[in-house]
Design goal:
Oligomer: single chain
Helix content: 25-40%
CATH class: Mainly Alpha
Strand content: 15-25%
Structural class: alpha+beta
Strand order of the largest sheet: 6-5-4-3-10
CATH superfamily: Winged helix-like DNA-binding domain superfamily/Winged helix DNA-binding domain
Number of domains: 1
Number of helices: 4
Order of helices and strands: EEEEEEHEHHEEEH
Shape: globular
CATH architecture: Orthogonal Bundle
Largest sheet: 5 strands, antiparallel
Amino acid sequence: MLVMRRDGACVRSFPEKIEFAGISFHPRRNLLVSKDGSTVVLTGSETRLLAHFASIPWTLRTRSDIGELLYGPEHRVGDRAIDVVINRLRKKLVTAGGPDAEHLIRTEFRRGYMLATDVAALPHQPTARPRAMLRAAS
């Protein structure tokens, strides 16, 4: 399925749940879920960036590519702004996945970043609605 972004570009929509390195990523809910079920809330920028990385893991994403994704093609952004978002995302990945998750986003000096793990997109599985909600809906 293709979705139009604000800047008019077409992009693939993401599944409801993506798993990597023992972490469940829910891009539509801006959420990371750890193995023990604890959750970490992501900002919109962090979610867009992680979804971008997860769309093609093990692929270098240049700083200009990341800057355009986060701030749009018409905005020039410094490297420091990108580094801040990357570092916040790294910290949240560690919170959800433990110390080993610190190395999930690999830095290629002066070139960019990549998600250094295999990714599995899981099909949508509808959740059962509580009976009270079913009665209210009818």
